[in-house]
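Hello,

Following up on my earlier ticket. Below are the two sequence lines again, exactly as submitted.
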Amino acid sequence: MRTIPIDDFDDWRSVARGLIASNAPPAEIQLVENDGQQSLFATGADNYAKDTNTSSFRVPREFISLAKTIGYHRNANRWNLLYRTLWRLKNEQPHLLEIETDADVHRLSTMEKQVRRDAHKMKAFVRFRKVEREGKVFFVAWHQPDHRIVRRVAPFFSRRFAGMNWTILTPDESVTWDQQTLQYGSGVTRSEAPDSDELEDLWRTYYAHIFNPARVKVKMMKSEMPVRFWKNLPEADIIADLLADAPRRVDEMIEQHEGFDQTAIDFIPSVGDQTITLDTLKEMATECMACDLHQSATQTVFGVGPANAKIVLLGEQPGDQEDIVGTPFVGPAGKILDEAFSAAGLDRENLYLTNTVKHFKHTVSTDSTPKGKRRLHQKPNSREIRCCRPWFDAEWSCLEDAKVLVCLGVTAMTAIMGPGRKLSDTRGRFVETDYCNRTLVTWHPSAILRSHNESAREEKMQQLILDLSVACAGC
Amino acid sequence: MASEKQTSVDGKLAILADAAKYDASCASSGSKSTRQGSKIGSTEGMGICHSYTPDGRCVSLLKILLTNYCIYDCQYCVNRVTSDTPRARFTVDEVVNLTMEFYKRNYIEGLFLSSGIIQNSDYTMEQLTRVAKNLRTQHRFGGYIHLKTIPGAAEELITEAGLWADRLSVNIELPTELDLKQLAPEKKKPQIVSAMSGIKDKIDETKSDRKSGMKPPKFAPAGQSTQMIVGATATPDNEILKTASELYTGQRLRRVYYSAYSPIPHADSLLPGKSPPLVREHRLYQADWLLRFYGFDVNEIVVREDKNLDLEMDPKLAWALQQRDYFPVDVNTASREQLLRVPGIGARNVKRILAIRRHKRLRTDDLKKLRVAWKRTKSFVITEDHNPALADLDRGDLKRLIVPKEKQLTFFDTFDAALNGEL
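Thanks for your patience. The regenerated structure is below:
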């Protein structure tokens, strides 16, 4: 038995070349870690001259890269295992590496995986801390890898953090990058590394909130992020707190969780049924409780007009008077609309008038008038609009002769055309929509009522009349 | 009134990371080389998971929303306009700084930025693109950037985004046009598909320019992906897979991510991992893998009459139990295609088997050493030695013998399937 000390992979390579050239059987060779001390058993090395010439025997390229990787492993027997495999490649089976079920190959591939994994974990778990010295910024990390992989991984960090001055300290070895070259030094203890970074709180905030507390799988986390690494990971400090707080956060999520909103669809039993008419819809709508607006409104205000109407007008929602009477556009806004109809040559009797939301949404004013407290109009929100939409969808499918759909105001426009449009940009021309290829947007009569001054009022009124004439001409 | 939570960077980060945590994708792979001229950051093909949260998921990218304000009302989304969720908005510089500072400390591989829609699609898309552009030009950032494109944004805006991002994604959102109409009325399938093909064309153009010797600027070198919500409508699995298959072949997507919609988180928290949406998601990922790497056709994967995948077992096993005539397969003589169809043998092991076979004949113990799922495999294969389990192939109750006992499926399993899809 001969014992030969090995420094590193390159050393092993030249030793192994010599051994192979002199046909030394692996059973007679003991390759050991060179710890710098002359071993009593280190004998016979001189008998095998290190061979630096290429011999006739060609080693598969995969084996070289495998051996290089295994060289970083901490296992003391690795050089022997590698030599035995090399020997077998030459004398037994040139394709040995392809036989993954072979005991030596299996062992090597396991060790290779361990080094690769450790290198990968180093790339993942190194955490730099920023330090300033003499006006210069440095990033310093403390890491404890399982294997002696610093030299394997350092080039990766130099490519990734090319424009940074950084140092990685480990118990075995340390490495520094000055934006030019990598310099290796000896191992150090943890106390040499900085112990905090102001950014770590933000990082922990991110970590805490990207965690989904409804799905706790500690075992899985630990298998990918082994506990032995935790002491150097700032985010690991809060894992215990996150787990303790998870049930409370789940309760909070459940409370905030809304699911699908209910819509009026539940109150329209069979949409698409041929027997449904506007009258039956109107009847069904009286019972609608899909949103909370029915609670404070007097009644559902459904659309009015003939089923064969060619022009359909869609407003926002019933107002105070409409709510009491039960018919759309009978209040002050209705009067404006009537004026515009006659100016545009339209007959209200031939039109179908309805609203996007069919209940009156309001607040009650705090100041009393002689007639009692006033009910003030409130804009419906998008949840209420969405909730009520199935009623208009059903009305529209009954209105088979409709040629033009007129949206009065922003609420109707958004309900039909989707968000992100400006009324002033869309007004007055036909637009193709999912409902009708001649959809037209114009002012809501209330906008005319609310105009700041007479000239604005007059201008909008003229535009409303003009737009209605366009609608009239379109059918 | 905005609370402090909605104005400090820390408070915004809490809200906007919370809002992004339902996004299935976190991959940071696919860009094979680092951008020229980068000072900080690299992409070398494989992404790195820098941390793991206690839900077993990896943390690779800084995954946040620019804002969770949104003018849309998609019913499956927590950020829809009608939701009461707390809102916040980052500035472009805040996102850029967070990304750089996190990256320099080696917390992340890069940025995955998405957003609710504010003002309109084009404005929002411009904001997202500006983040990526600042990172690339002002900070010479070479790390990974995934931008989620905004539905309805102009094509030239998406094209610009592709110059700065490694990956672009356009969410298909729901499997069919009808589903979209029901739950996301503002999103239109033709619009989504045309955005995808716009990106595909640009990627193709860049590639062919490169082939013909030109040096075009990078365009989404890690390709495009999409996300589909499953379980929010009654659409069955075979329709979902057809949509996915169309996207893989028609748009050449790198990945389709499936995200289970679970309307009641109660069920999840009480029965972790047993909730059907999670199992379904898991099965869809497995089926997705059969489509892409195992030579299965979309029309043969779903074998049940109700057009859904079997929740009890993986789709390959379900297929094998139905197609007994196809078996047994002799591991020492079968073709690659045949081996890929054996339950319990993954694509990597098929490769190993083919390599070993050139030098020696495989025995049962060899397969076990390769760690095939022997329990599932044994009744379907002939090996060099005697394999008594082969006799079970003709048994009527084979399913009962093989199908794994009910086990708790965790989100991690799903996630794992999303990553490697080994069957």
